[in-house]
Amino acid sequence: MEEFHRIRRLPPYVFEEVNRMKAAARAAKEDIIDFGMGNPDMPTPKHIVEKLVETARDPKAHRYSMSRGIPGLRKALSAYYGRRFGVDIDPEAEAIVTLGSKEGLANLAQAITSPGDTFLVPNPSYPIHPFGFIIAGATLRHVPIGEGIDFMAGLERAAKHSVPAPVALIVSFPANPTAMTVDLDFYGQIVEFARARNMYVISDLAYAEIYFGDTPPPSILQIPGAKDVAIEFTSMSKTYAMPGWRVGFAAGNRTLIRALGRIKSYLDYGAFTPIQVAAAAALNGPQDCVAEIRATYKARRDVLIRGLSQAGWEVPSPDASMFVWAPIPERFNNLGSLEFSKRLLAEAGVAVAPGLGFGEYGDGHVRIALVENEHRIRQACRNIKRFLTTADPADTSSTRRLAS
Q: Are 172 and 125 in contact (CB under 8 A)?
């Protein structure tokens, strides 16, 4: 029997091969230090959990919720945008609650994509950014992004040679996987680019609060007139260590918010009401917990960068996000990111995400997620040092053993 059309458009999941090896190693009782998935390991702040429990005790809270999100949570999101960015968001027409930003992005793709429509997507990028639109039937133009690359010039070329003209551009800063950050001047150019071409901008701001310098990452909605063309997704997952709660948001352009709401009204009844009430308490309540989470990631980043340097692996220190985007050590460049990740897992007991999983232009890197404590990070760096010192790049016997 043939595969279904949409399934045929999805390539083999690059991370699955590493995941199979990881499972085999754990089944053999091997200790794996797992930096592979960006899955926050810190506990959700106590006051947020307590609000969830308190609300869940109310029998009325267990009925269907609202697909667009309860009014109190949409108002809390609007207040956050006012405090953090100085942006006015109408909670009725310019804000919507999603089941995590990933669901929101995928459903927006379904809402605005006609067969054959073209979208511009940075490469490398978080997989849902391209594949949400591929699943919806779109055609993609991949625009290389990274150190030393003129992204705006790439956008100009991609837009010029796209037939039909692009519907939208996806951007995400601080970026996953690269941890790249941008300033308001960059967003100004993006808004001008989109307005000149009558296209939309879809911004993913999931890591807005995970930054390590004095200047917080900006929002594209801070640019005057941005709401004419832009919608922005945010998430509770990283900011408040709530990944399993699946609470995200979209804010901005009314047409896109309305389209997303229309699709969602057919697909879901919204997140469990106590989760939404607790999310509102997180946004409205004390923010000391956010500073503590941020400080934890910063401390882990510093331990990792220092430890890798001592191991002989010089890696740029990210200014934001919970990821380190590490160029493959020169001795192992010929392996590519997938084979290098497999070797690192098999011989050092350290799992990372191969850059190829984020697009072809990511193949010279691996992504390291800051989701292990400092003690485990130091242990990983010792293991990596031993691997880099003794490993033969041409010997693949260890990966064959785990893969079999």
A: yes
**125 Cβ contact partners less than 8 Å away, ≥ 6 residues apart:** 145, 170, 172, 175, 176, 177, 358, 359
* CA distance to 97, 323, 324, per residue, from 297 (Å): 26, 9, 11
At 119-156, the pLDDT tens digits run: 999 999 999 999 999 999 999 999 999 988 999 999 99
Cis before 144? omega within 30 = no
Instruction: Please report, to the nearest 10 degrees, the dihedral formed by the alpha carbons of residues 387, 389, 395, 396 taken in order.
Output: 10
211 and 339 both lie in a single domain: no
Claim to verify: residue 86 and residue 155 sit in the same structural domain: yes
Tokens of 346: 């098999």
Pairing type for strands 168-172 and 118-123 reads parallel
Per-residue pLDDT tens over the stretch 23-81: 888 888 888 999 988 889 999 999 999 999 999 999 999 998 999 999 999 999 999 99
Same domain flag for 193 and 217: yes
CA distance linking residue 389 with residue 387, whole number of Å: 5
Closest CA to 34 of 371, 385, 379: 371
Tell me, yes or no, whether 76 and 166 share the same domain. Answer: yes
The Cα–Cα gap between 303 and 111 comes to: 43
Residue 381 to residue 304: CA distance in whole angstroms: 7
pTM of the full predicted structure? Answer: 0.92
Domain boundary among 226, 250, 284: 284
Q: Of 249, 284, 319, which residue constitutes the final position of a domain?
A: 284
CA–CA gap between residue 386 and residue 371 (Å, rounded):
22
Q: Are residues 212 and 154 in the same domain?
A: yes
